[in-house]
């Protein structure tokens, strides 16, 4: 399920993704995007942000503005050489007191990537760039400005990437089976009871070693997972819960899965915790993003 | 052209006049053009009046040419007279091109009082065009500031209003810098901005000018005229400046047509044919947003704006293209079809393809440029929008139903315009139909159905027919009618598409569709069988409702003519579940429709048979003998029912009307034998009654048996005159009347 990276990726280069909360979007192929013009994009985007913040006032492109935009590639963030280089957009705030020499404060980052999603670009003409997964960290306001600019400039569409309960249960099963060096945190599943006048969330925490033991009895062929196995795994957890609390979790909605690998929320929010499994999780998310586009 | 010569003796610049030759003669329409002839000869009173006006205008112009400084209006009757002449002629007919130089000069030179200058400027309404040179010299007068501030302002407003009447603008463009320098004057600034807005071209946008405007912006704050000019700069050079306009902006410049509006309209009406089209502001503020929505909402169809993304790249690469990018025509300026034709070689698609939906000119363009990227961009945008905004697939979207309806409507109209369905729309229907309640955006969804592209049946069945059937059987009569109508349009669109491909068979595009003729025949046949099946069931469910039957027969009007009208070797008879309810319908409209359909079936079958006999090549698509057999069974039933009164005896169809006499006797209907013919058929009985009333007004017994022999023929003529054209063509083609006298000997013709 998690193929070893096909090229020598430097974990340092992708470490910025870890331990932060990312909001997920799917993005249709960018039209007319060129890796050779990132600096130009940064200048335009920075002026666009300034113009958006002070609607009605014109802004000269290329001057120093209080928001600095950096656009760069992350060649290490991909599944194979057929994937496009990931693009990182970072907004940082210049301190107004001493704009020249003071350090900048990172306020927002966004990352366009494609991990083993090359089948999306298979029959597309060259002027399209396929980076179907977009992750954003920072104020929604900036996401909206940067997203609008990309939509206008590269004729693409952003859509929030929600994760269905079915996919969450897959994640729960997959991540349970992963080897983690030091097991510290418990595996947690959060369920939400539907159709109630008040919100009722049920948190179900399982010791990771117990969960792993259960999964090992369910999984028949290592390295391969079937829907049936995932169902059996979840059913076992449900019946265990029912034995203790007399609540049928199968009648509720799975909204969040947290493991030592990553945690994912159904609204399309993810937190990566293990650098080793980063590309594996991104590959799954790329897959989900592509299925939302096609 | 003596008038020109007389003017040239007065004034210097000759080059203007040559340019305006045609305009001058147009203005002097009705006057003799031969200088040899005397002025007074052969003229109508109207012409004479014009001539006297003409002469007094000339006098006035030469007066203003030579007028000395500071003549008082009140004391000077001559000035008053000439001023009134200029005013009255200008406001009624407009001034000739030659007048402007003199009048502008005198108005801006400060020789006369401001009241006179104002009146002169206000009467500067062109009959045809304004020579550029007169404007240029006026600007030089403006620069020396001999006139008052008010006159300067009035002149600028005049220039803005009359901009489109100026015959050439090259030299005026050369004065861009002069105008730009007037920006620092606070009062003139709004008008200068407007003027610059009209004059600005790509090459006018310079970094130092941008900086100057930004300084002004800092000084004066948010001003709509500065915003407009800066937005235009952004349009031409987004790599130098950017601005986001607030959503509520409506006008950027105050109405500057001012005192000339009425006069211009009058003159424009006079020479409507060649009046210049006023340049419209090409800045689109974002469309008014009804309410705050997500930033990535795609329901807002983007405004057309130029894709400037590649500008700099080309410059960097220094590549030589066939055409210069700088020449490319901004889509924002594309307003008319002639503009499209003139600029089609250097037109670019907008930065967001979705905007073509609301721009018919770009749709035309899209139709000629078969670019894969164009369709892909539209495909992704539309696919995402439909899914994201679908009101029945996405929770919380139901409050936006009206917007979504409008959007579906727009998509449908675009499909009609392009005469092809979008694959993103097809996918959307497949995805959303299983979740559809049949109510939400009903007419829009059903219209989109009619543009589903041809695809393989297995896909259609599981994605389209199956979910549709569930809704169809459980919904109202009107829904059923709408579905049948949509499916009829779907069938027609498929057939039309096939016709177009037949026409352009040499094109390589045909093969890209990857549909063979037999594949197409199969898909069309499946659709027809599907409609036949749901129609049969629906007629059962709705108790053979006339209205429903009308829509079903309408569908078969297309089906029966496929071979001849669409050149497709396919003929499918309606199922007995449709044929018999129509034949026994209580409504003459349905019966008439059925007659017409059977007539067309006959015509198609006869043509097919002839073709088969003449050329043997199309043998793989020979109609099966079963089709002929079905037709013949139906025709026997029809003739029995309408003509020979033998429906119960001769009908051979297994689901037909054939009944034993024993059984019929048990019904206790007296004359069951004649209960179905053209007179006694329930759908026709009304006509028979009216016919009897007219033929035997005194007879109230309604003896239908009177209609026979010659009366039968009269009755037929009567029926035809009542608009039963289908019946007419059916009887004339399918019934072989051996003897005019005895209708019972008539025989049906089988093919």
UniProtKB/TrEMBL annotation, chain A:
User: What keywords would UniProt list here?
Assistant: Centromere, Chromosome, Nucleus
The record's subcellular locations are:
Chromosome, Centromere; Nucleus
* Keyword ATP-binding appears in the UniProt entry: no
Gene Ontology cellular-component terms for this entry are: chromosome, centromeric region; nucleus
Q: Can the keyword Nucleus be found in this entry's annotation?
A: yes
An example Pfam family from this entry, by short name, is CENP-L
Query: What is the name of this protein?
Result: Centromere protein L
Name the source organism: Stercorarius parasiticus (Parasitic jaeger)
The opening ranks of the lineage are:
Eukaryota, Metazoa, Chordata, Craniata, Vertebrata
UniProtKB/TrEMBL annotation, chain B:
Task: Spell out the family assignment given in the record's similarity comment.
Answer: Belongs to the CENP-I/CTF3 family.
Would you kindly state one Gene Ontology biological process term found in this protein's UniProt entry? mitotic sister chromatid segregation
The UniProt entry, under PANTHER family, shows:
CENTROMERE PROTEIN I
Positions of the region Disordered? 1-55
Tell me the InterPro entries matching this sequence. CENP-I
Q: Does the keyword RNA-binding apply?
A: no
Basic and acidic residues bias spans:
1-11
* Compartmental location: Chromosome, Centromere; Nucleus
* Predominant place of localization: nucleus
According to UniProt, the name of this protein is: CENPI protein
Q: Which GO terms describe its cellular component?
A: inner kinetochore; nucleus
> What are the protein's UniProt keywords?
Centromere, Chromosome, Nucleus
């Amino acid at each position: 399920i998690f193929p070893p990276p096909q090229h020598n990726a430097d974990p340092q280069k992708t470490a910025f993704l870890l331990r932060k909360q990312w909001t997920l979007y799917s993005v249709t192929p960018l039209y007319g995007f060129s890796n050779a013009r990132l600096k130009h994009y940064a200048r335009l985007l920075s002026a666009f942000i300034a113009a958006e913040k002070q609607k009605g006032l014109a802004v000269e492109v290329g001057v120093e503005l209080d928001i600095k935009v950096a656009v760069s590639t992350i060649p290490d963030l991909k599944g194979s050489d057929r994937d496009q280089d990931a693009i990182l957009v970072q907004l940082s705030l210049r301190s107004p007191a001493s704009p020249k020499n003071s350090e900048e404060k990172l306020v927002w980052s966004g990352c366009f990537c494609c991990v083993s999603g090359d089948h999306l670009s298979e029959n597309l003409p060259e002027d399209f760039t396929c980076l179907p997964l977009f992750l954003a960290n920072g104020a929604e306001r900036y996401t909206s400005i940067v997203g609008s600019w990309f939509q206008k400039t590269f004729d693409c569409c952003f859509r929030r990437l929600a994760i269905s309960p079915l996919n969450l249960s897959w994640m729960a099963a997959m991540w349970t089976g992963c080897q983690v060096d030091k097991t510290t945190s418990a595996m947690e599943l959060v369920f939400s009871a539907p159709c109630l006048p008040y919100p009722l969330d049920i948190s179900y925490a399982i010791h990771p070693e117990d969960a792993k033991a259960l999964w090992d009895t369910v999984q028949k062929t290592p390295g391969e997972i079937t829907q049936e196995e995932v169902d059996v795994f979840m059913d076992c957890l449900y019946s265990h819960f029912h034995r203790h609390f007399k609540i049928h979790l199968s009648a509720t909605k799975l909204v969040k899965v947290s493991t030592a690998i990553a945690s994912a929320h159904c609204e399309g929010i993810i937190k990566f915790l293990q650098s080793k499994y980063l590309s594996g999780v991104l590959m799954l998310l790329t897959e989900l993003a592509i299925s939302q586009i096609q | 052209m003596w008038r020109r010569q007389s003017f040239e003796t007065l004034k210097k610049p000759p080059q203007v006049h040559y340019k305006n030759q045609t305009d001058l003669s147009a203005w002097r329409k009705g006057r003799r053009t031969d200088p040899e002839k005397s002025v007074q000869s052969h003229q109508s009173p109207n012409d004479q009046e014009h001539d006297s006006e003409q002469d007094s205008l000339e006098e006035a112009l030469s007066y203003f040419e030579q007028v000395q400084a500071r003549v008082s209006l009140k004391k000077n009757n001559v000035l008053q007279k000439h001023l009134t002449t200029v005013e009255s002629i200008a406001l009624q007919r407009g001034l000739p091109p030659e007048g402007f130089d003199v009048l502008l000069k005198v108005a801006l030179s400060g020789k006369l009082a401001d009241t006179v200058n104002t009146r002169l400027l206000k009467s500067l309404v062109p009959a045809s065009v304004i020579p550029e040179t007169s404007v240029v010299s006026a600007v030089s007068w403006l620069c020396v500031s001999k006139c008052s501030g008010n006159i300067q302002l009035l002149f600028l407003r005049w220039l803005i209003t009359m901009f489109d009447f100026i015959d050439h603008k090259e030299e005026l463009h050369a004065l861009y810098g002069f105008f730009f320098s007037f920006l620092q004057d606070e009062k003139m600034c709004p008008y200068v901005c407007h003027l610059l807005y009209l004059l600005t071209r790509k090459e006018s946008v310079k970094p130092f000018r941008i900086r100057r405007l930004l300084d002004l912006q800092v000084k004066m704050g948010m001003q709509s005229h500065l915003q407009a000019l800066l937005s235009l700069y952004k349009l031409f050079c987004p790599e130098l400046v950017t601005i986001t306009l607030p959503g509520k902006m409506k006008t950027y410049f105050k109405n500057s047509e001012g005192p000339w509006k009425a006069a211009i309209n009058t003159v424009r009406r006079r020479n409507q044919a060649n009046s210049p089209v006023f340049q419209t502001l090409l800045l689109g503020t974002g469309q008014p947003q009804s309410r705050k929505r997500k930033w990535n909402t795609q329901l807002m169809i983007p405004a057309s704006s130029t894709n400037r993304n590649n500008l700099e790249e080309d410059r960097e690469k220094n590549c030589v293209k066939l055409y210069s990018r700088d020449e490319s025509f901004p889509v924002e300026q594309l307003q008319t079809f002639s503009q499209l034709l003139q600029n089609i070689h250097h037109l670019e698609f907008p930065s967001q393809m979705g905007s073509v939906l609301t721009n018919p000119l770009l749709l035309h363009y899209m139709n000629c440029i078969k670019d894969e990227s164009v369709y892909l961009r539209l495909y992704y945008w539309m696919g995402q929008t439909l899914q994201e905004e679908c009101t029945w697939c996405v929770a919380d979207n139901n409050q936006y139903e009206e917007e979504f309806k409008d959007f579906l409507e727009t998509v449908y109209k675009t499909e009609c315009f392009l005469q092809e369905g979008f694959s993103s729309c097809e996918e959307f229907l497949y995805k959303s139909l299983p979740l559809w309640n049949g109510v939400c955006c009903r007419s829009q969804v059903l219209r989109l159905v009619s543009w589903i592209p041809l695809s393989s049946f297995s896909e259609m069945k599981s994605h389209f027919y199956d979910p549709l059937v569930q809704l169809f059987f459980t919904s109202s009569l009107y829904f059923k009618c709408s579905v049948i109508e949509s499916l009829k349009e779907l069938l027609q669109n498929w057939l039309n598409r096939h016709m177009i491909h037949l026409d352009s068979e040499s094109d390589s595009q045909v093969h890209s569709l990857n549909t063979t003729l037999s594949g197409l025949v199969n898909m069309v046949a499946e659709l027809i069988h599907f409609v036949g099946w749901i129609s049969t069931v629906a007629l059962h469910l709705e108790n053979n409702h006339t209205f429903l039957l009308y829509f079903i027969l309408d569908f078969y009007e297309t089906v029966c003519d496929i071979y001849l009208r669409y050149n497709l070797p396919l003929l499918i008879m309606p199922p007995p579940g449709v044929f018999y309810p129509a034949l026994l319908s209580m409504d003459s409209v349905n019966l008439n429709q059925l007659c017409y359909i059977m007539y067309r079936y006959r015509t198609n079958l006869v043509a097919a048979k002839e073709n088969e006999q003449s050329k043997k090549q199309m043998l793989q698509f020979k109609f099966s003998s079963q089709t002929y057999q079905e037709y013949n069974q139906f025709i026997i039933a029809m003739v029995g029912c309408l003509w020979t009164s033998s429906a119960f005896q001769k009908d051979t169809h297994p689901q037909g009307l054939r009944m034993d006499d024993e059984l019929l006797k048990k019904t206790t209907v007296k004359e069951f034998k004649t209960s179905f013919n053209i007179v006694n058929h329930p759908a026709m009985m009304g006509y028979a009654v009216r016919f009897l009333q007219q033929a035997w007004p005194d007879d109230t017994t309604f003896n239908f048996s009177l209609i026979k022999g010659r009366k039968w023929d009269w009755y037929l003529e009567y029926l035809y005159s009542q608009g039963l054209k289908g019946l007419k063509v059916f009887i004339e083609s399918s019934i072989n009347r051996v003897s005019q006298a005895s209708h019972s000997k008539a025989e049906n013709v089988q093919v």
